[in-house]
């Protein structure tokens, strides 16, 4: 195992817009991985609930929204497995490569006209592959910098811009292919994107030096035997429970969503407790983990709103928004590009702002609190769009664009800052797993959303958007009030 100092020294510290050269490799690897993921996600909901004659699977719309929420939650939950494998077995770099291969297989399955069976099988591959790739890419970004390097936050902002460049271009291209040649053609574009990402990663790994090359906390021989035994037992239990649910008629999407919601809430609690009680976690690291809890809750609230862009908001755009522009029918998938477009244009501004402010800028807890204010405002704008639109008319799409814009400001206050804070607050023995914990905030949010999408059909739209938007603002106020306490518990980490 290498020390952090040895890893940083092995990485060329200049060569990519004033950042370590390895950021180039990770920037473009993540660009193509996100291209494939967001391209697929932009049309997946519509593929599920569009009728068979329109090239879809003909599922009930509410059920399709539940499946999307479960899918999103499981993708982020799988980061636990990916982080653990990287920490204990492969190291982060190998985990990234294997994950990319599995994701590509999943997209290829969607590109083939094999119906619902291919849909669920592809979800399995993409869930496991993303768990291996996504948290570990972010973890390697953190390894490129010394803990006190002032470029860290701006580096994560640049990395985050790469994610969103992929997220911006993918819905436009995939949506265009889907509109003209069908859903499977669109999914095929996503598969090609992941292939290109793997090629870029393999050809430029040397830029990473020693970062991610070895597992920081490898399994001992005794632990390998115990792990293998537990894996076999766990797999058997899962298969047995699945068979039991099927035989008793309880194997429904709705019941499965309840299980996912329970796991989405409980797994982070168990995870934080395990790391806190571990003898490998010292006193300063324990304090930082406690400080991380309110930040995590804040992130869950934010992503509960933000992740509805692929479920409730996507449905609203498809069914309640005027998509006719000068006689041209805008593909609903194209609206998925507004979020990354705004991030691309504003991320450099935020990166420069944090660099210029340095130690005088707002603390991490305060940035998180501000992010919730903007998230709440984005849903309150949706209320205005409904109230100010004459009954029976379709909503002007500019309302939706404004809502997305406000949400993006919140995202730039929370997401890149949260990635950076997680790498700094992580206990040394749980670096990859703590990054997986950050993505569990999205998992928990989407697990909760699996129930909220059912509520959406039972209450008025103004009530739905109003309650969630108001709750976000209230939690933001609480985080703002206790931010000095959180900052103190972070033990020198700003």
From TrEMBL:
The keyword Methyltransferase does not apply. It comes from the Bacteria. It holds the Pfam family PTR2. Its main location: membrane. Residues 22-487 form the Major facilitator superfamily (MFS) profile domain. Signal peptide: none annotated. It is found in: Cell membrane; Membrane. It is a multi-pass membrane protein. Keywords: Cell membrane, Membrane, Transmembrane, Transmembrane helix, Transport. The chain crosses the membrane at residues 35-52, 64-86, 95-112, 118-137, 158-177, 183-203, 231-249, 255-277, 289-306, 333-355, 367-388, 394-413, 425-444, 464-486. The keyword Isomerase does not apply. Belongs to the major facilitator superfamily. Proton-dependent oligopeptide transporter (POT/PTR) (TC 2.A.17) family. This is Peptide MFS transporter. It comes from Solibacillus palustris. The lineage of its organism: Bacteria, Bacillati, Bacillota, Bacilli, Bacillales.
């Amino acid at each position: 195992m290498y020390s952090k100092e040895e890893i940083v020294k092995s990485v060329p510290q200049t060569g990519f817009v004033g950042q370590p050269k390895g950021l180039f490799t990770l920037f473009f690897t993540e660009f193509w991985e996100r291209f494939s993921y967001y391209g697929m996600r932009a049309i997946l909901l519509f593929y599920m609930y569009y009728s068979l004659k329109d090239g879809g699977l003909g599922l009930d719309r509410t059920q399709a929204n539940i499946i999307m929420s479960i899918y999103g939650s499981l993708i982020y939950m799988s980061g636990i497995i990916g982080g653990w494998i990287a920490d204990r077995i492969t190291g982060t770099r190998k985990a990234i490569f294997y994950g990319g291969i599995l994701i590509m297989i999943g997209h290829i399955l969607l590109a083939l006209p094999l119906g619902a069976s291919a849909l669920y099988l592809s979800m399995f591959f993409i869930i496991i592959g993303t768990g291996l790739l996504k948290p570990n890419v972010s973890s390697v970004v953190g390894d490129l910098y010394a803990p006190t390097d002032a470029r860290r936050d701006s580096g994560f902002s640049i990395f985050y811009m790469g994610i969103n460049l992929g997220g911006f271009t993918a819905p436009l291209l995939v949506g265009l292919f889907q509109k003209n040649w069908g859903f499977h053609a669109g999914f095929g574009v996503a598969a090609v994107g992941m292939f290109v990402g793997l090629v870029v990663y393999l050809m430029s790994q040397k830029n990473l030096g020693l970062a991610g090359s070895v597992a920081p906390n490898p399994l001992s021989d005794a632990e390998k035997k115990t792990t293998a035994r537990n894996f076999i037992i766990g797999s058997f239990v899962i298969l047995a429970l699945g068979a039991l649910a099927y035989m008793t008629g309880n194997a429904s999407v709705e019941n499965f969503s309840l299980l996912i919601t329970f796991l989405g809430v409980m797994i982070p609690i168990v995870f934080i407790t395990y790391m806190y009680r571990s003898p490998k976690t010292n006193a300063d690291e324990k304090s930082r983990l406690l400080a991380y809890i309110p930040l995590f809750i804040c992130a869950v609230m934010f992503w509960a709103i933000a992740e509805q862009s692929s479920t409730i908001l996507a449905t609203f755009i498809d069914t309640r928004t005027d998509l006719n522009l000068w006689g041209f029918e805008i593909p609903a998938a194209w609206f998925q590009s507004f979020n990354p477009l705004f991030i691309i244009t504003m991320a450099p501004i935020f990166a420069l702002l944090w660099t210029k402010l340095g130690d005088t800028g707002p603390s991490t807890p305060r940035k998180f609190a501000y992010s919730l204010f903007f998230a709440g405002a984005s849903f309150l704008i949706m209320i205005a769009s409904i109230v100010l639109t004459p009954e029976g008319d379709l909503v002007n799409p500019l309302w939706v664009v404004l809502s997305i814009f406000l949400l993006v400001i919140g995202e730039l206050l929370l997401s890149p800052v949260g990635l950076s804070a997680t790498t700094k607050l992580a206990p040394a023995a749980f670096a990859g797993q703590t990054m997986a914990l950050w993505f569990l905030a999205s998992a928990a949010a989407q697990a909760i959303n699996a129930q909220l999408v059912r509520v959406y059909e039972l209450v008025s739209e103004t009530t739905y958007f109003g309650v969630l938007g108001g709750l976000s603002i209230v939690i933001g106020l609480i985080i703002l009030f206790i931010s000095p306490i959180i900052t103190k518990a972070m033990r020198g980490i700003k």
